[in-house]
Amino acid sequence: MASAPSKLYQDDVSLVVALLDTNPFFWAAASLPFSEFLHHVIPFINSLLLLNQLNRVVLIATGTSSCGYIFDSGDGNASGNSNAVCSGIIKKLEDFVGKDSKIGKGSNGDGTRPAISSLLSGSLSLALCYIQRIFRSGTRHPQPRILCLQGSPDGPEQYVAVMNSIFSAQRLMIPIDSCIVGAQHSAFLQQASYITGGVYLKPQQLDGLFQFLAAAFATDLHSRNFLRLPKPAGVDFRASCFCHKKTIDMGYVCSVCLSIFCKYHKKCSTCGSEFNQVAPDSTIPDQKH
Amino acid sequence: MELLIELSQVIIDRRPRKRQRLGWDVWPENPMKLQDVDGYIISDFSLTTNRTEQWFCVLLVPARAPQQIGFLYPDSGIAIRRSCKPFRVPTNSTQRSLSLIPATRIRTIGTEVQKLTGASSILPPSPSLPLRVEVPFIYLFLYLSSLHSDPKQNLIRYKLFLSGGRLEVGFDKNGGNKRRYKNEERFVFVPNDPRSLMKLNVEFKNIKGHKFSKDGSKQALLNLTQDPEKGTGYIFEFDNFTDRNSCRDFVGRVLGKLQSVPGRPNEQSVPEKSAGAPLPEQLSAVEMERRIKLLREDSELLRLHKQFVLSGVLTESEFWATRKTLLGEDTTRMTKQRPGFKSAMLADVRPSADGRTNKVTFSLTPEIIQQIFAEKPAVHRAFLNLVPSKMSEKDFWTKYCRAEYLNRTRNAVVAGAEAAEDEELAVFLKHDDILANEARRKIRRVDPTLDMEADEGDDYIHLPDHGILRDAQKDTAETETEVSRRTLSQDLNRHAAVVLEGRALDVELGDTRTVAEALAWSKQELLSKEKSEENVNLEKQEKVARMTELEDLQAPRNPQYASLCIKDPREYFDSQQANALRALGGTEFGTNSLDLNLSKEEVYRHLKEQISEAKSRGLRNPIIRPDTALKVFSGLSQHLSSTRFQLGKNSQESALDRIPHRTKDDLMHHWTSIQELLRHFWSSYPITTAGLYNKVQRVKDAMGQIYQKLQEIKESSQSDFRHQVSLLVQPMLQALDAAFAHYDSEQQKRTAKSGAKPNGYVR
């Protein structure tokens, strides 16, 4: 039902998958209360649906221990006025947070430090799966993009998973837009937007969040060709060593896991491979810092 | 009787032991009389060489006034000079007309040459001044070859400059009256091409001896030696021995007479130059040709050549020494980029009827013929079999066209009848058995797992009311004759296959026979290759077995690789984050900034409260205060317009794209120049000879000039781009600085070693 015959307006039909950060640790301390945040985001979702009758918006919540679909405009019962959409989203969110907290409680039982970062990799994967499903159903499909509304800091332990998701999105030519509502920049999303050609934005003034969203993230991919959107700032691709986090021009690379070191190590600290070669003459790798 | 020998096509091989000051040992004493034409004319251009081993072309431009007839006087200014210089007025001259270039042409040539050489002005400032222009031959040649579509012709002309002419021995001094004097004083070489400067007029008293090759040996040579110790002299090659012998006898007689009279030593007109300076490089015509070709094909190279060789920074041989690979035989013979066949169906040779008579004309070009051969193997085979043993090429193609015509007009009955009569014609009308064979062979090689039935629904040809429109008539599949069963789609497929195969031949189009043979040969090669592939059949079957296996029925396969075990993926992130932090200007990153003091229950409760608050409040109206929205909007716009020009922010476009084109081109050009110079500079160390020393000096001076120019570019660039330009210029300056520093330190070592104290040295 969702993939209505949209052959006439294929170019400007969008499928927006928005990832909503519901990290309770973040929202407890955030300058922008979560209720306020919702007051900006839900109208934005409504306006996306208004832009084109055939537009489709999917909302995915990114929790600390689980991710879940909150809203799908293609869903039969989600149609109707904006108030219905709003209450539907809030109700689903309530359910999700309740579930998320229970799962979190279970894992917290063994006394480990609670996971404070949101499961960005999980929600990115959900979004990609959803888009894949749309791709495989019907002959013509809307142009998909992913919008990350991220507040909590990056989770370093998700590095491999997140990077894999980013590269998948790149292969599928799905731009990942990022809007950072937290205090810190996100290295993950910066890379994601850079690699996939999306927009990376960190609004300074959070009470105007809706305006930011509408100005930078509402346009469909076809219109973006004609607009000057905030371009992702250049990502520094220079390598920095794993041991001191210094940017280096020349260094040692682990042949197993590609970790970079500025000094010769007997054992790779990342993957544990042991190098039994004799350390080369220290004068050979001429390092320029 | 006087001995007057005029030999045609004597090849002169002048072993050049020329005096350094002069371009030539001997210059023509007979100035060229030029016809007076309105405006300027280039009466002559010819080839000469100077001491810096460059080939020069001398353009001779006489003035309007008849007394100012220009003539070539090689003594003056063979060196690189582009000056306007009046010609001497010749006192006595033999009449010889030269081919003239009209006045309008010289302007064109002048400007073109100017363009090529970058000379400031080679046209005379005022029409009363005669002008002499010296242009390296290469450039003139390049220009001339651009005028004429066929560069080969120019090459031939160029070779004529170097060789071919008439050797006159014992000619009469007063030209017209041969009976009065017999000239035993000099011999003259007149080239066939009147514009060539390879003219010799030598007095016999300068000749010390003569040598000659034996009768019956490979070449008929006569060597007139000028100085036996140094081996200077003139070597002439004759067409036959009788000419040579009569010439030799005369020379012998004259020399014998001369040597019996003791010659005065101070009569030697020009003193011999001291030895020591390197002799100019003698280039063979082939070598020249190759260099010219390279320069013509590579504009970058031409620019470098112009910049350095023309200005004397590098000599011709030095310039090419670093490009030996380019000059190598192999590169010139390497396969060139060949255009493929046209994708249009060329094979349909369209007949053109003239309307009045019943004549139908087909026109075939060599290209069309090659394509016909490629697409219709039957025609190809017939050509190989029949031409020229059974019929001429023309007859063959006439027949082919006739068959085509019959085919086209679909006159099946006539075609059938004709084919029955004429078996050669039948070849063209018959179903192509070679094609059928090839198709069968190909089908054998098709992947057996291919599902042919899948395409069945796509066959529109056999549906009613479907078909292909060709020549405005429907080409329905059902026709009676065998010939026309070769449908258009088959033709199309065949054509597509040929186009994709490409032009495998590297044969000059033109001779149809060679093309046909080469094609046959390449096909055979292909076949033999395929034969060997037959052996791979087994392997193919194995592959098929693999393809058809059902995954579910197989035992689980263990991965062939060891899985990567990473102890801590966090490290990857951390190392990247460090950079990202720097890139964004030090904004706080980090994972630990969250308030961990709050308990989990607390934070979840807070979030739930927030949600229920949102639920109770519902949607607000307005969503956002108008003044906030305006502020955000203008802030965004400002941010966008400010980052537009910022450098390094947008890594998608190169920094070079943003600076003005002129500056960019200049920078790129300087960079290539610097690379060239630096290569020469560093390759000349260690300095072992005086030549190298001079070279380093020259190169260093040129680098100094570029250094200056770079500084100018840096300073003159607009303030918007200054930073960027200086960033780009920086590595160039560094490279030059390194060279200069090396030069200075070497210089110091040199002076220290030789013990020479520099000026102003105080103890």
UniProtKB/TrEMBL annotation, chain A:
> What domain of life does the native source organism fall in?
Eukaryota
GO MF annotations in UniProt: zinc ion binding
Q: What is its main location?
A: nucleus
Keyword annotations of the record: DNA damage, DNA repair, Metal-binding, Nucleus, Transcription, Transcription regulation, Zinc, Zinc-finger
Nucleus in keyword set: yes
The keyword Glycosyltransferase appears for this protein: no
Q: Which family does it belong to?
A: Belongs to the TFB4 family.
What does the UniProt entry say about where the protein is found?
Answer: Nucleus
* Protein name per the record: General transcription and DNA repair factor IIH subunit TFB4
Q: How is this protein annotated for GO cellular component?
A: transcription factor TFIIH core complex; transcription factor TFIIH holo complex
> Which InterPro entries does the annotation name?
TFIIH_Tfb4/GTF2H3, vWFA_dom_sf
Instruction: Read off the Gene3D superfamilies from this record.
Output: von Willebrand factor, type A domain (3.40.50.410)
Q: How does it assemble?
A: Component of the 7-subunit TFIIH core complex composed of XPB, XPD, TFB1/GTF2H1, GTF2H2/P44, TFB4/GTF2H3, TFB2/GTF2H4 and TFB5/GTF2H5, which is active in NER. The core complex associates with the 3-subunit CDK-activating kinase (CAK) module composed of CYCH1/cyclin H1, CDKD and MAT1/At4g30820 to form the 10-subunit holoenzyme (holo-TFIIH) active in transcription.
This molecule's function is given as: Component of the general transcription and DNA repair factor IIH (TFIIH) core complex, which is involved in general and transcription-coupled nucleotide excision repair (NER) of damaged DNA and, when complexed to CAK, in RNA transcription by RNA polymerase II. In NER, TFIIH acts by opening DNA around the lesion to allow the excision of the damaged oligonucleotide and its replacement by a new DNA fragment. In transcription, TFIIH has an essential role in transcription initiation.
Gene Ontology biological process terms in this record: nucleotide-excision repair; regulation of DNA-templated transcription
From TrEMBL, chain B:
Give GO BP annotations, semicolon-separated: DNA-templated transcription; nucleotide-excision repair
Q: Where in the cell is it found?
A: Nucleus
Q: GO CC terms for this protein?
A: transcription factor TFIIH core complex
UniProt main location, coarse: nucleus
Residues of the BSD domain: 287-331, 356-408
| Keyword terms of this UniProt record | Nucleus, Repeat, Transcription, Transcription regulation
The record's comment on protein family reads:
Belongs to the TFB1 family.
**PANTHER family linked:** TRANSCRIPTION INITIATION FACTOR IIH-RELATED
Protein name, as recorded: BSD domain-containing protein
